[in-house]
Design goal:
Helix content: 25-40%
Largest sheet: 6 strands, mixed
Structural class: alpha+beta
Distance between the termini: 43 Å
Radius of gyration: 23 Å
Catalytic activity: L-kynurenine + NADPH + O2 + H(+) = 3-hydroxy-L-kynurenine + NADP(+) + H2O
CATH topology of the largest domain: FAD/NAD(P)-binding domain
Keywords: FAD, Flavoprotein, Monooxygenase, NADP, Oxidoreductase, Pyridine nucleotide biosynthesis
Number of helices: 14
Protein name: Kynurenine 3-monooxygenase
Cofactor: FAD
Number of domains: 3
CATH class of the largest domain: Alpha Beta
Bound molecules: flavin-adenine dinucleotide
Pfam families: FAD_binding_3
Shape: globular
């Protein structure tokens, strides 16, 4: 057990509230601040982004005994339902029994705050943190950036305040602080598939629905109330873009042409389209993540990634698992806890950022590429035959808690093998012949 400290967590999002539970159960006094109102008290429209929770997320939740409470609000998805232009295909995510889980961000966040409060963490809502004094872990709170501020001093402060973190903002003004931020030219917008009159789902609720169309795509994840939350990803500008859809007729015609089987299930398409905002997607990297034994960044505040691997929250939750491991090993030596935490996490955060960005490229540029489809077909065939020798990259990221850096490295090695295989003569016709199998086995030996 560590000596009890007075700790502030800035941000009551998913990462901040789970961190609060871990810190409280480790014997600390925990105050969580958020600039927003208490989301449990505001009128909730029932609409919100859905997240896919996978192994790393569950491990962090189970690690502090709250996994089962969250399982009650999660829907397992064991497969992708791929809505092609003229057909519907199903593709299992992993082995028998392996699923990712659809959870509404709003429902999960409210649950996490409830759980953190029951554990004894105190929450302070509508409290805007404008700045922090790093050396003394003092928060500066006020109504406006230029108005009066109140100071609150702590033993340490965690910045769990998301991709545009104010805590990081202060650290950025230190010398030797590296920082980069890159926006995609793709944005996203939410749409809604309501439940049937009897409360049932209009599509299979245990599938992650995807309408891949090259540079744009639609996805849909199920909610407990029978509805689905859809997200349309599309370039901001250009031929098929948000800018090109300017009125009701254009939106309806676009969906009719490109997502025809979705039209019947999204009754308020044009209303949703023009009412809901178009949001941006950013990759943000920085280092260091900590300042002496006083300040640590965690979650999106130190590694925001694009959502194409469904790992942002999972990675943030894994930060907590690793931080806690360091707390157990180094006890009261918080400087060591922090330095080992950032040393362990930074390469993994960079790896999942890279994998997520590659997945975006893969979905936007390669899905229609014949060579790429052939590669996927061969990989699937070989992996089914030799599950012990070829674990697909997706499974390494999603159904494992091995480091992301390892998944990236093995994925690169597998890609190099596949490049050689695709160079084999007449590969289009011999792709499932023994000579291809033997070639892969032989190349695997060179690892
Ligand atoms: C379209 C989309 C789909 C996604 N899908 C997935 C998915 O399927 N699976 C997955 O694992 N991840 C997914 N993610 C990523 C996931 O949403 C984030 O990684 C996760 O929400 C990060 O949590 P966080 O607590 O670090 O930050 P946030 O959720 O951003 O929370 C930050 C909190 O800090 C508060 N705050 C900010 N500034 C201040 C301040 N100055 N003072 C006080 N409070 C402040 C905010 O009000 C907020 O409550 C997706 C993201 C997007 C955009």
């Amino acid at each position: 057990m560590q000596t009890s400290k007075k700790i502030a967590v800035v941000g009551s999002g998913l990462v901040g509230s789970l961190l609060a539970i871990y810190l409280k159960k480790s014997g600390h006094t925990v105050h969580v601040y958020d600039r927003s109102p208490d989301i449990r008290k505001i009128q909730f429209s029932g609409r919100s982004i859905n997240l896919a929770m996978s192994n790393r997320g569950w491990k962090a939740l189970d690690g502090v005994g709250v996994g089962d409470a969250v399982r009650e609000i999660a829907i397992p998805m064991d497969k992708r339902a791929i809505h092609l232009v003229d057909s519907l295909k199903f593709q299992n995510y992993g082995q028998e029994g392996e699923s990712i889980y659809s959870i509404s961000r709003g429902t999960l966040n409210r649950k996490m705050i409830d759980l953190a409060e029951s554990a004894g963490a105190e929450f302070f809502f509508e409290q805007k943190i404008w700045d922090v004094t790093l050396a003394s872990a003092t928060l500066h709170i006020g109504e406006t950036e230029r108005g009066e501020w109140e100071d609150r001093k702590y033993d340490m402060v965690f910045g769990a305040d998301g991709a545009f973190s104010r805590i990081r903002h202060r650290m950025q003004r230190q010398s030797m602080f590296n920082y980069s931020q890159e926006f995609l030219n793709i944005g996203y917008k939410e749409l809604h598939i309501p439940a049937n009159a009897d409360g049932s789902h209009k599509l299979d609720k245990n599938s992650f629905h995807i309408w891949p169309r090259g540079e744009y795509m639609l996805i849909a994840l199920s909610n407990l109330d029978g509805s689905f939350t859809c997200t349309l990803f599309m370039p901001f500008e250009g031929e098929n873009s948000f800018a090109s859809l300017t009125d009701r007729k254009e939106v309806e015609a676009f969906f009719e042409k490109n997502f025809s089987d979705s039209v019947d299930v999204i009754p308020n398409l044009a209303e949703d389209f023009f009412r809901n905002p178009t949001s941006t997607l950013v990759t943000m990297k920085c280092f260091p993540w900590t300042y002496t034994d006083k300040i640590a960044l965690i979650g999106d505040a130190c590694h925001a990634i694009v959502p194409f691997y469904g790992q942002g929250m999972n990675a943030g939750f894994e930060d907590i698992t690793v931080l806690y491991e360091m707390m157990l090993v180094y006890g009261d030596d918080w400087e060591k806890v922090f330095s080992e935490y950032e040393k362990s996490r930074k390469p993994n955060a960079d790896a999942i950022a890279e994998l997520s960005y590659r997945n975006f490229l893969e979905m936007s540029t390669k899905t229609a590429d014949d060579k790429f489809l052939l590669q996927k077909k061969i990989e699937k065939w070989f992996s089914d035959k030799h599950p012990d020798k070829w674990v697909p990259l997706y499974s390494r990221v999603t159904f494992s808690d091995r480091p992301y850096v390892e998944a990236l490295a093995i994925g690169d090695f597998q890609n190099a093998i596949m490049e050689e295989v695709l160079r084999m003569e007449n590969i289009e016709n011999i792709w499932n012949f023994p000579e291809v199998e033997n070639k892969i086995l032989e190349l695997l030996q060179s690892q």
